[in-house]
């Protein structure tokens, strides 16, 4: 049981890293283009705001999966 849980945690971390590689390049580009209109604080705030929005939508989807009958989801 403990080995399965650790495997799940490792898989989750690897998937998170793999799906966020493009985000590193976007952030790098935005930080290189910052000026008086686009400040570092704007980029950081937008990054956190977007990530929080994704987490909230994921939680809503997970809770929705508990409500919707399993036969409908597949």
Quick structural gist:
The chain is an all-alpha fold and 74 residues long. The chain has four helices and no strands. It has one domain.
As a whole number of angstroms, the C-alpha radius of gyration is: 18 Å
How many domains, as an integer?
1
User: What portion of residues belong to β-strands?
Assistant: under 5%
Mean pLDDT score, rounded?
A: 91
Residue stretches low in confidence (pLDDT < 50, at least 5 long) are: none
Largest sheet, in brief, is: none
Distinct helical segment count: 4
First-to-last CA distance: 26 Å
Describe this structure in words.
This protein has 74 residues and is mainly alpha-helical. It has one domain (23-74). It is built from four helices and no strands. The longest helix is centred in the C-terminal third of the chain and has 28 residues, at 40-67. The mean pLDDT is 91.
List keywords for this structure.
elongated, mainly alpha, single chain, 74 residues
Question: What's the structural blueprint in terms of helices and strands?
Answer:
Elements: H1 2-19, H2 21-32, H3 40-67, H4 70-73
């Amino acid at each position: 049981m403990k080995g399965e849980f650790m495997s799940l945690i490792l898989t989750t971390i690897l998937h998170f890293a793999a799906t966020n590689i493009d985000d590193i390049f976007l952030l790098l580009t935005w930080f290189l283009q910052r000026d008086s209109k686009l400040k570092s604080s704007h980029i950081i705030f937008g990054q956190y705001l977007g990530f929080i929005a994704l987490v909230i939508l994921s939680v809503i989807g997970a809770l929705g999966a508990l409500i919707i009958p399993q036969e409908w989801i597949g």
